[in-house]
Design goal:
heterodimer, A: about 170 residues, mainly alpha, Four Helix Bundle (Hemerythrin (Met), subunit A), 6 helices, about 70% helix, B: about 100 residues, Helix Hairpins, 3 helices, elongated
Chain lengths: ~170, ~100
């Protein structure tokens, strides 16, 4: 067993265990903190797959941005003074059965398919080539994404604004 | 244990997708539903990067994963703004009890 395999199995175990905690925990704050470990594990996967820039982006955007947003959301929408940071579930048994069947189906397809794998090559760094690609082949998508992000920013600020009409 | 290949990454990502689907269907709290959506987006991203790595497709898979991350950030911001408005109106964020657009 090589070092690569050991690292893979370590992070895979981390992702799966924390993923189950995210989904199953009664306490939402525990879920949010477990999501942190899932996202870090996925960043490690990206780096294992030779996508170093994507790993860094995952850490900065997900762990540094989205997770903090989610934590803000949790703290703003719960009665923190009480014990009210809990969340129930509904339709547990039927959805468990459906999702188990779905997962078994997916795993069957994945393991039975004869994937045409090539032996992967590790390039030094993907930052420069990603930047060139982004400006040349994907420049329209790049511009549209910039506009989408701007609209999302303005929209979120407008939606969450506290207009005190009653005061 | 066999050498880690494409199948290992696909198995992990499909299990992660199922966990996210479970959170979206079962949990009542709107923020947990959002977390489930993030899990599903991340599992799709793992697939993109894994296929790009093992299939010699160049950088297209990584570009798609990058775009997914950007859209996920925009989605999280908008969704949390909506959740805050729901909380302001209903004083809870249980998605199964929110069936009106205003009081």
């Amino acid at each position: 067993m090589e070092l690569y395999d050991i690292i893979f199995y370590f992070f895979a175990a981390m992702i799966l265990v924390s993923g189950f905690v995210v989904v199953g925990s009664k306490n939402i704050v525990y879920s949010a903190y477990s999501l942190l470990f899932v996202l870090i594990g996925i960043a490690a996967f990206y780096i294992l797959l030779g996508a170093d820039f994507l790993g860094v982006v995952q850490l900065m955007v997900y762990v540094g941005g989205i997770l903090i947003l989610l934590l803000f959301g949790i703290m703003l929408t719960n009665k923190v003074k009480g014990v009210e940071i809990k969340s129930d579930s509904n339709f547990v048994i039927p959805s468990l059965i459906t999702i188990a069947v779905f997962t078994a189906f997916l795993l069957f397809i994945i393991t039975e398919t004869n994937w045409q794998e090539t032996t992967p090559e590790f390039v030094q760094t993907t930052v420069k080539s990603l930047g060139i690609e982004l400006i040349q082949n994907y420049s329209l998508v790049f511009e549209i994404l910039a506009v989408v992000l701007l609209i999302a920013l303005i929209g979120a600020a407008t939606l969450a604004r506290n207009d005190n009409k009653e005061n | 244990m066999p050498h880690v290949g494409l199948t290992h990454f696909l198995v992990i990502s499909s299990i992660l997708f199922s966990l996210g689907l479970y959170a979206v269907i079962v949990r009542k709290n709107a923020i947990l539903v959002l977390m489930g959506i993030e899990l599903m987006l991340n599992s799709a991203n793992i697939n993109f990067v894994a296929f790009a790595h093992f299939g010699r497709f160049g950088l297209d898979g990584q570009m798609m994963a990058l775009f997914v991350i950007v859209l996920a950030a925009a989605e999280a911001a908008i969704a949390l703004a909506i959740v805050l408005n729901i909380y302001k109106t209903f004083l809870h964020i249980n998605v199964d009890e929110v069936d009106k657009l205003k009081e």
